[in-house]
Amino acid sequence: MPDEQGKAILGDRLRAVEDRLQAACQRSGRARADVTLTAVTKTTSAEIAAWLPDLGIFDLGENRPQELWHKAALLPTSVRWHMIGHLQRNKVEKTLPLVGLIHSVDSLRLLATLEEEAARQQRSLDVLLEVNASGEVSKHGFAPLELASVAPDIHKLQHVRVRGLMTMAAPTDDLERCRPTFRTLRQLRDQLQHELGAAHDLRHLSMGMSGDFEVAVEEGATLVRIGSALFEGLS
Ligand SMILES: *Cc1c(COP(=O)(O)O)cnc(C)c1O
Fold first, then answer.
1. Which of 193, 195, 228, 232 could form a disulfide with 210 if both were Cys (CB 3.0 to 4.6 A apart)?
2. Distance 110 CA to ligand 1 centre (A)
3. How many whole angstroms from 157 Cα to the centroid of ligand 1?
4. Which residues lie across from 82 on neighbouring strands?
5. Is the CA virtual torsion 68, 73, 77, 79 positive or negative?
């Protein structure tokens, strides 16, 4: 497929997603500016991902550290990279300088490693805690009950700022089945915010993918992670 044709397709898909985002915001009385579209580029090439900044999208997400490193080296530095998949601790050192936000902190051990490395690199780092809120999809993430005891660990952090929670809903044909998962994440966030007080601002809820982002926005998502709705067939 010639570049111009591919770019036109991607532009059309972005406009379609944008229309649906706006409609979901309107239905739920939210401001469009409060929801960031993160384009998940994991199935597409660096060449195609590089069209996104030209189309006004600067928030890009990858679920594998090596692929994030690869694309980050090729794309303009105006891109804000989101790490959305499992991050092994031996990949923290190299990943940290490249990312704007890590959505997928799934253990206290990883949180401690990130704090140590951020201190060593003398920088601050924004992260979200991944929660297994549906109880079924993911092998990664904090169990909801576990989350009730993490406040003391968060209070100790000096370089890492916890900015909210992330989850994935179980894939389903019946969208209403996602709603309880997203609602649970919001409630867990509110609870943890209450425990943490003003020291950490947990404003972000990263939830919603191509199949379910409208329900997620209705339930309070501030970051939606969209891959296939943009890149299916473009690679
Ligand atoms: C792949 C992926 C997405 C995007 O999923 P689509 O259904 O393709 O939109 C979102 N979040 C995570 C963690 C992913 O791995």
1. 228
2. 21
3. 29
4. 61, 101
5. negative
pLDDT in tens, 201-211: 999 999 999 99
Task: Return the pLDDT at 172.
Answer: 86
Q: CA-CA distance, 74 to 70, in Å (whole number)?
A: 7
Please tell me if the CB atom of residue 141 comes closer than 6 angstroms to any atom of ligand 1: no
Q: Give the number of the atom of ligand 1 that is nearest the alpha carbon of residue 85.
A: 13
Residue nearest atom 6 in ligand 1 by C-alpha distance: 227
Type and span of the H or E element at 226:
strand 223-226
Mean pLDDT of 93-114: 98
Q: Which of 37, 165, 209, 212 maximizes ligand 1 atoms within 8 Å of its Cβ, making it the mutation to test the pocket? A: 209
Q: Which residues contact 91 (CB under 8 A, 6 or more apart)?
A: 65, 66
The 10s digit of each residue's pLDDT in 54-76 is 999 999 999 999 999 999 999 99
Query: Which pLDDT score is estimated for 139?
Result: 72
Contact in structure between 83 and 67 (CB atoms under 8 Å):
no
Q: What is the pTM of this model?
A: 0.97
Q: Which long-range CB contacts under 8 A does 225-229 form with residues at least 24 apart?
A: 225/38, 225/40, 225/61, 225/82, 225/84, 225/103, 226/17, 226/37, 226/38, 226/39, 226/40, 227/39, 227/40, 227/41, 227/42, 227/43, 228/43, 229/13, 229/16, 229/17
What ligand 1 atom has the least distance to the C-alpha of 225?
10
Q: Is the pLDDT of residue 214 over 70?
A: yes
pLDDT at 173: 87
